[in-house]
Structures are given as structure tokens and as C-alpha cells.
Amino acid sequence: MNDDLTPGIFLPVLKTRYMGREYKYFHSIDSTNNEARKAAISGGSEGLVIAAETQTSGRGRLGRSWVTPEYTSIAFSLILKPDMKPCDSAGLALVMGTAVCRALRKAAHLDAGVKWPNDIIVSGKKVCGILTEMDAYGDHINYIVAGVGINVNVDKFPDDLKDKASSIKLEAGRSIPRYVVLASVLMEFEVLYGCFKSKGFGSIVDEFKSMSVTLGKDVSVSSASERFEGRAVDITADGLLVVRLNDGSERKVISGDVSVRGVNGYL
Ligand code: BTN
User: Fold this and answer.
1) Which of 39, 95, 141, 220 is the most exposed place for a label (fewest CB within 10 A)?
2) Atom of ligand 1 nearest to the CA of 68
3) Which atom of ligand 1 is nearest to the CA of 55?
């Protein structure tokens, strides 16, 4: 199977209007998010995609690292320059989560779900992570970089990850070309991002909720300053997670680490 992310293979299958039409491909790079930030600062336009076969310092959320196995996974970062206030952009990471879920459902027929805010989960295991980073000045967004790591055809995970992480191939039982997955994510994202920009996250929240593996579950929330437990009862029109505590009070979570209680302990 020709499973290539080089421009010559990838661009002919891309059906978007502008997402990914400007495409920079690297074999190895420190982090596609770092490269995208540099490109955004030096004038890179909305829709520019930086993709790499592997990363030497891939970054995850909350200061974690992210491993990109060469030739079997996807690491890409997308530059966005939405004309909105920084405080209105919070739902953007969730929009990307929705796009990845849609793409995995359509391209690989997987029952993919989202663990709030944006881990993509199949059969209780994480197959994709998303890291969005923003640069803003006052009320103006200079740029947002949406970085996405997808385990596509990865066959094996290290012992410490194998109960928590999986790949599209392991879950679907067959390999799928990475360029198909990337093109499909960008296509779905372009449509959803259009809705997000014109009508806000509220226009997508019902679909997001329908794909959520967090809603209705007992969760444990930890942030830099606190930790609490409760039941995830809602996701607001601006993308916040509403958690009901044992005393009946409700807390809205903006960011942080949310673990969901499932059959095998917390995910
Ligand atoms: C997470 O789940 O913690 C987020 C992982 C995000 C990984 C992607 S891979 C492409 C981009 N470059 C990075 O360094 N990180 C993101």
C-alpha cells in the first residue's frame, strides 16, 4: 500500500477549498506546532498545514510529550487566523475534535468519540490527541496553531501505553492510507470551522455532545490549583464542561485534565 504524506501523493486527494492547499512536508522535525508558529509569525496564511513523518520533540497537552512513530502515524499543524476575540475561540479545539471524529467515522467506519476537551477515543483507548496554541495581543488573535497527532497504522504500543492508546488499524482491523485520513480531517474541519466562525460553537455543540464519551459519566477534574470529582452533565454553547458535584452544585470547567470513570478505572 502506498501510504505516503508527501505533497505529490497527498495533494491530489485533497478536496478542500483552502485548508491544507498550502502544504509543507518534513521528514523529521522537532514539532510541527513549533514550525507552524514560526510560519504564522512570518506571514503564513490561514489553512497552511505543516506535516511531518516524525517529531523529535512532539508536544502534548499539559506539558506532556507526544510520540510520532515514523510512517505509521500523522503529525500535522494547521495555521488559523480567525477574526474573533480570544475569549470566543475556546471552542476551536473542540471543533477540531469533532472534525477528527467525523473523519474517522466516515473514512474508517469507527465508532470514534471525544473525551472532553479533545482526545479522540475508540473502544476506550486514545487514537488521537490535539494541541491548540494561541498567540494574541489584547482583543486580537494573531494566530492559532491546531496540532493533531493521529495513530493511524501503528501496530504496537509500549507496555505503559498499551491499555490507554490504540490506532485506527488496530481498531478497524485493517490499514488505511494516512493521506486519506489527513485529507478527510481537513475536509471535515473546513466545513465545521466555517460554521464556527459564522455562528459560534453553539452551532456544533449538539453534534459534539452526541460524540462525547464524557457526558453522563463520573469524572475527576484536576487543574494546577485544585482537584474535584462529580458527574459530567452538560457542555455549554461555548464549549465548557459542566460538572455536578455531590452537593448538587455545578462547576464549569474551562481547561484542565478530565478523567472519565469507565469499566477499566479512569481513562
Ligand atoms: C495531547 O493529547 O496531549 C495532544 C497531542 C498533540 C500532538 C500533536 S502531533 C502534531 C502537533 N505537534 C506537536 O508537537 N504536538 C501536536
Assistant:
1) 220
2) 9
3) 14
Distance CA 193, CA 203 (A): 10
**CB neighbourhood size of 138 (10 A):** 6
The label of the residue with cell 479522540 reads 120
Contacts of 79 (CB under 8 A, 6+ apart): 36, 39, 40, 44, 45, 46, 47, 48, 49, 143, 144, 145
| Integer Cα distance of 75 and 67 in angstroms | 9
Ligand 1 atom nearest to CA at 62: 3
pTM over 0.90: yes
Query: Rounded distance, CA 178 to CA 33, Å?
Result: 19
Q: Which three cell numbers stand for residue 56?
A: 523529535
CA of 222 to the centre of ligand 1 (A): 20
Measure 31 CA to ligand 1 centroid, in angstroms.
8
Which of 59, 151, 161, 259 maximizes ligand 1 atoms within 8 Å of its Cβ, making it the mutation to test the pocket? Answer: 59
C-alpha cell belonging to residue 264: 477499566
pLDDT digit string, tens, across residues 155-212: 999 999 999 999 999 999 999 999 999 999 999 999 999 999 999 999 999 999 999 9
